[in-house]
């Protein structure tokens, strides 16, 4: 999941700089997996200590959502608000000590692997599931939601399930969804009563995780307004949309037909949630720090900007939401242009991780890393393929270059932060023997420009976060080159290595528990053997909320605050 221009920052404790592992010390790993006890998927969710019903909470953010149509959503903030009005087949429950468990949401369990080979998955819906008008949520509605995700206008959303059903990256070449005479149930899906079955040509052991995304949110065919559904999706969650003024405000009020006994994830403590848009991150932070008037009942969704992080102390720190996210910042090396493996390995030693972190706020903003998977990924394996310390090892880089001085073009995001990081990159790489030309890229097109196969840069800073806490949503999209297109590529290293592709296929067919550590091993193999990317730092998050708000949780899956437990504190 690309960051999509959203900066994630956090207040993180300083670790001792040992010079090993890029200047980091071992960090806590998260654990978890798929629930095996059906009781874990039942509601209600455990009560939040001190929580009470009533009141209004404001959610502050700088910009509008790209989409609210669940089949089209694909950014962390969209996923966070979607949890309040849309329920997929499965969802993640976050427990203490970093444990993440996938449970049944609409479904009674996280899914049944019918033949124990990951090719056929069955889900049965719970009893008592209701939409905001009191009508029953059906398995046919879930199938219809999946069907409409094949439509071309829904292409902004995730494509996992569609590609798996079609057994092709070109998933809608034959079946285009239900709008042009296509069936309301897509090929590969069958419905019997309140049970759905997904059948794949190949094993897909991550289907329960993919089912947690908006692709499986139910949509009644009679309520489907096609493209206009983006403005008023029909509620299957604890809240419904009462009003939406694009670019200004979104108001959610209770869905009185939502039954907490069916929901192991959510509460509905506030009477309403009001999303207020158009406030800069600086304005949000200043309001929360001042904590007066309506700000006491609000949550800042944008990160505290660098210049105000020093104010997140004392009482303000007690009102902050902070922690590690799953976003990893890395230097993507365009292997189409930088073909010499020894040059790429020299680049691994040249990076100044500490310098990159320092110019964006130091440990308040990130932690140097030497891995492509974040510690927030189940199966994370810590390694250091090119031990260079936090500031790089220019001597080792020069040794690999054998007296050569390769000319490289570094493409950087043309904003204040990108300019500072470009200065660090140029200084570090030239110290290591490279000759670096800096090429600014417009901030609005920074990511899409990298994704063009004919882009003119040798390397650039990129970032990625897992769609769910598995290496399956990091390493294949970033390093499987078999699906490279002229534009829109996630593999911005443009690596297409048969050995890597073979491992991706092998691990992808394993059950989750077996696959998790294998993704960690493949992470090390990719960086060690191909040097197609240089891990730089793990991003952290720090946000602040008003003093009358409780229950704000930083999702380890979404890397952003979520609101399933929020409440207004009593006087």
Overall SS class? alpha+beta
Rg measurement, Å: 23 Å
Beta percentage is: 15-25%
List the strand order in the largest sheet: 14-18-13-17-15-16
Distance between the termini: 40 Å
Query: How many beta strands in the DSSP annotation?
Result: 22
Low-confidence stretches: 2-25
Shape: globular
Query: How would you sum up the major sheet?
Result: 6 strands, mixed
- Percent of residues in helices comes to 10-25%
- The number of distinct helices, counting runs of at least 4 residues, comes to 14
Mean pLDDT over the residues: 91
Task: Give structural attributes.
single chain, 571 residues, alpha+beta, six-stranded mixed beta sheet, five-stranded mixed beta sheet, 22 strands, globular, disordered N terminus
């Amino acid at each position: 999941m690309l960051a999509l221009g959203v900066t994630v920052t956090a207040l993180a404790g300083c670790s001792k700089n040992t010079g090993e592992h890029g200047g980091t010390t071992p960090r806590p790993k998260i654990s978890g997996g798929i629930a095996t006890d059906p009781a874990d998927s039942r509601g209600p969710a455990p009560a939040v200590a001190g929580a009470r019903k009533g009141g209004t909470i404001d959610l502050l953010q700088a910009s509008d959502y790209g989409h609210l149509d669940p089949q089209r959503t694909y950014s962390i903030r969209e996923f966070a608000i979607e949890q309040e009005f849309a329920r997929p087949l499965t969802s993640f429950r976050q427990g203490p000590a970093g444990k993440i468990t996938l449970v049944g949401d609409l479904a009674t369990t996280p899914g049944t692997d019918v033949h124990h080979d990951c090719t056929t998955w069955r889900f049965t819906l719970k009893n008592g599931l209701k939409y905001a008008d009191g009508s029953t949520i059906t398995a046919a509605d879930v199938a219809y939601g999946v069907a409409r995700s094949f439509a071309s206008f829904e292409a902004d959303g995730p494509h996992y399930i569609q590609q798996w059903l079609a057994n092709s990256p070109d998933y809608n070449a034959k079946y285009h969804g239900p709008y042009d005479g296509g069936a309301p149930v897509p090929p590969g899906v069958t419905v019997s009563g309140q049970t759905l079955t997904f059948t794949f040509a190949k094993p897909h052991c991550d289907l329960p995780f993919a089912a947690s995304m908006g692709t499986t949110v139910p949509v009644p065919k009679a309520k489907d307004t096609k493209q206009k559904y983006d403005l008023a999706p029909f509620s299957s969650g604890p809240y419904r949309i009462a009003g939406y003024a694009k670019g200004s405000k979104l108001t959610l009020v209770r869905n009185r037909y939502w039954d907490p006994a069916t929901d192991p994830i959510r509460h509905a403590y506030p009477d309403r949630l009001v999303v207020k848009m158009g406030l800069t991150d600086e304005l949000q932070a200043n309001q929360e720090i001042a904590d007066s008037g309506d700000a006491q009942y609000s949550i800042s969704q944008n990160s505290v900007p660098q210049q105000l992080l020093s104010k997140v102390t004392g009482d303000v720190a007690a009102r902050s939401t902070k922690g590690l996210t799953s976003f990893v910042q890395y230097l993507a090396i365009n292997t189409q242009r930088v073909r010499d493996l020894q040059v790429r390995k020299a680049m691994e030693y040249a990076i100044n991780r500490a310098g990159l972190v320092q110019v964006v706020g130091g440990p308040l903003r990130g932690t140097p890393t030497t891995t492509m998977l974040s510690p927030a990924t189940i199966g994370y394996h810590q390694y250091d393929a090119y031990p260079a310390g936090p500031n790089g090892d220019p001597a080792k880089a020069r040794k690999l270059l054998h007296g050569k001085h390769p000319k490289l073009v570094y493409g950087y995001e043309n904003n204040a932060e990108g300019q500072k990081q470009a200065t660090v990159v140029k200084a570090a790489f030239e110290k290591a023997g490279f000759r670096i030309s800096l090429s600014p890229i417009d901030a609005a097109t920074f990511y899409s420009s990298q994704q063009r196969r004919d882009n003119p840069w040798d390397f650039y800073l990129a970032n990625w976060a897992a769609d769910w806490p598995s290496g399956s949503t990091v390493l294949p999209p970033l390093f499987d080159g078999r699906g490279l297109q002229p534009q829109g590529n996630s593999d911005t290293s443009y690596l297409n290595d048969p050995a890597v592709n073979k491992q991706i296929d092998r691990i992808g067919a394993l059950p989750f528990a077996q696959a998790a550590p294998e993704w960690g091993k493949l992470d090390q193999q990719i960086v060690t053997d191909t040097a197609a990317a240089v891990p730089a730092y793990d991003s952290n998050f720090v946000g602040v909320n008003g003093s009358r708000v409780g229950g704000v949780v930083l999702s380890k899956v979404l890397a952003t605050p979520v609101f399933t437990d929020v409440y207004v504190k009593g006087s």
